[in-house]
Amino acid sequence: MLSTKYNPSEVENKWYSYWMEKGFFHSEPNPKKEPYCIVIPPPNVTGVLHMGHMLNNTIQDILIRKARMEGKEACWVPGTDHASIATEAKVVAMLRERGIKKSDLTREEFLKYAWEWKEKYGGIILEQLKKLGASCDWQRTKFTMDPDYYNAVIDVFIDLYKKGNIYRGMRMVNWDPVGKTALSDDEVIHKEVQSKLYYIKYAIEGSDEFITIATVRPETIMADAGICVNPSDQRYKHLKGKKAIIPLINRAIPILEDEYVTMDFGTGCLKVTPAHDMNDYELGKKHQLEVIDILNEDGTLNAKAQILVGEDRFIARKKIAKLLEESNQLANVEDYKSSVGFSERTDAVIEPRLSLQWFLKMKEITKPALVHVMNDDIKLIPPKFKNTYSHWMENVRDWCISRQLWWGHRIPAWYDDSGNYVVAKTEEDALSEFKIQYPSFKAQKLKQDPDVMDTWFSSWLWPMAVFDTTIFSDSKNKGNHDLNYYYPTNDLVTAPEILFFWVARMIIAGYEYRGEMPFKNVYLTGIVRDKLGRKMSKSLGNSPDPLDLIGNFGADAVRAGMLFSSPAGNDLPYDEKLIEQGRNFANKIWNAFRLVKGWTIDATLSQPKENALAIQWFQSKMDESLAALNDDFEKFRMSGALLTVYKLIWDDFCSWYLEMIKPEFGKPIDAATYDNTIEFFETLLKALHPFMPFITEELWHELKERNADCIIVAPWPKSKTPNEKILIEGSVAFEIITEIRNTRNAKGISPKEALRLLFKSEGPALIKDFWPIIQKLSNVSGVSETREKVNNATSFVIKSTEFFIPIEGKMDVAKERETILKELEYHKGFLTSVDKKLSNEKFVKSAPPHVIELERKKKADAEIKIKALEESLSRM
Question: What is the pTM of this model?
Answer without folding.
Answer: 0.85
